[in-house]
């Protein structure tokens, strides 16, 4: 009798647990609703259900920092959802990603560069990514960043990046002072300064061509200058009224790049140099400059404690005599795979990362971040950065974030420029190739501006 009583009591408890609408309830996608609410800022005071889920996250080398991985551990502690980061070398990443997407075997979350033509042509986001327009963080993210992630009014990814931290020339002030050099404002001034530095036994510029993408920045970032010299150039390129091959300022910039290489400004090992070594190379004093993110100064000081942050300054790329501070509102972004098994959990992770306290954690604990593309955060701008911003009142957006069909061919442009350095291609050939690839992509996109 007593045994039957306890069995009946146990049955009542089990049935009550199964019929409840508390922490164990699930939405249509199988995600515990309270856990989702907790991660997105809702459901305050309610218990959080742990989930036994592993999200795969495919990203290129250099896109995921230690601070985000620490946040992922915190996210797992709160929700039970584990993030499995799969980091691919930069020169292989897009081929690996495209293969997975074409095979319909994408990861739960995949990284990709923002840009309208990029997300349309390279990632086909209308087929491969989830519409994230209803997510709370879209109301806070910089509208310029969101614009680079949107098609037909739908937002397809989250960018968390220091979009104001443009790649600029980082220079060793002590070397400049010792040689009596000042910040160059024209290409000729940069050339003469580099010649003097080279004569002193120091390699003028550290340029990591091995990464495949970095050297393209020299050409693309001064885009506002090209648009200034040829008024309306950006609009005319997008309307197919002009071609890259028609523009003399672009030809000038590429010709100047070739001359810099031929004069030995990049050193003997530039084809094998990698961006990961930039801080160490500048810290050793064997190079005077590098085209880098402004945060590289922190890497330099870490590598050589005898150096101080104030030993380094910044100036913009002066090819084609550029004096614009070029802005890139985009950056590496996070897409949720539309055919993934854990879409709601992936959304949950993005919402977690976009919480203000977690954004601030990323700034505080990522040396390469001085700010992020969300409001209300405390930046880490140095005096040198503030001086940089003040020195270049003219600002404009770089070419790849305005002109269609440029960003998707970035690595191909890198191969062409490397071929130019090696002597197997001329500057004019590079511009012609850019035009051809743009035309091919425009036809795939059925762009009416390219209709015959």
From TrEMBL:
Pfam families: SBP_bac_1. It comes from the Bacteria. The keyword Signal applies. Keywords: Signal. Residues 1-23 form the signal peptide. SUPFAM superfamilies: Periplasmic binding protein-like II. The keyword Signal applies. Residues 30-39 have a biased composition (Low complexity). Residues 23-47 are annotated as: Disordered. This is Carbohydrate ABC transporter substrate-binding protein.
């Amino acid at each position: 009798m007593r045994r039957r009583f306890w069995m009946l009591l146990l049955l009542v408890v089990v049935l009550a647990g199964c019929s409840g609408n508390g922490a164990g309830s699930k939405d249509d996608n199988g995600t515990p609703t309270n856990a989702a609410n907790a991660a997105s800022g809702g459901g305050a005071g309610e218990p959080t259900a742990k989930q036994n889920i592993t999200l795969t996250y495919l990203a290129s080398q250099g896109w995921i920092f230690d601070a985000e991985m620490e946040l992922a551990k915190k996210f797992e502690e709160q929700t039970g959802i584990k993030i499995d980061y799969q980091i691919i070398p930069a020169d292989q990443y897009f081929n690996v990603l495209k293969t997975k997407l074409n095979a319909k075997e994408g990861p739960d979350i995949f990284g990709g560069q923002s840009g309208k033509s990029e997300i349309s042509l390279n990632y086909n986001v209308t087929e491969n990514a989830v519409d994230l327009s209803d997510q709370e963080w879209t109301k806070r993210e910089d509208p310029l960043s969101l614009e680079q992630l949107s098609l037909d009014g739908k937002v397809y990814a989250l960018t968390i990046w220091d979009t104001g931290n443009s790649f600029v020339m980082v220079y060793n002030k002590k070397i400049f002072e010792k040689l009596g050099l000042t910040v160059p404002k024209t290409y000729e001034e940069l050339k003469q300064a580099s010649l003097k530095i080279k004569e002193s036994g120091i390699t003028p510029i550290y340029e990591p061509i091995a990464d495949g993408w970095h050297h393209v920045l020299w050409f693309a970032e001064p885009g506002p200058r090209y648009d200034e010299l040829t008024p309306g150039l950006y609009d005319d390129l997008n309307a197919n009224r002009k071609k890259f091959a028609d523009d003399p300022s672009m030809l000038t910039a590429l010709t100047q790049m070739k001359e810099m290489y031929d004069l030995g400004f990049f050193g003997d090992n530039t084809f094998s140099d990698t961006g990961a070594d930039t801080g160490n190379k500048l810290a050793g004093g064997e190079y005077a400059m590098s085209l880098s993110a402004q945060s590289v100064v922190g890497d330099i000081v870490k590598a050589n404690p005898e150096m101080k942050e104030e030993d380094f300054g910044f100036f913009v790329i002066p090819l084609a005599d550029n004096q614009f501070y070029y802005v890139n509102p985009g950056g590496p972004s996070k897409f949720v795979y539309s055919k993934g098994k854990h879409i709601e959990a992936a959304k949950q992770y993005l919402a977690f990362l976009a919480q203000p306290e977690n954004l601030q954690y990323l700034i505080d604990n990522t040396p390469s971040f001085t700010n992020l593309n969300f409001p209300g955060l405390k930046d880490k701008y140095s005096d040198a950065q503030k001086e940089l911003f003040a020195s270049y009142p003219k600002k404009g957006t770089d070419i790849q974030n305005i002109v269609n069909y440029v960003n998707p061919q970035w690595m191909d442009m890198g191969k062409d420029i490397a071929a130019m350095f090696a002597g197997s291609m001329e500057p004019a050939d590079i511009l012609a190739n850019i035009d051809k690839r743009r035309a091919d992509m425009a036809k795939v996109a059925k762009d009416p501006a390219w209709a015959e």
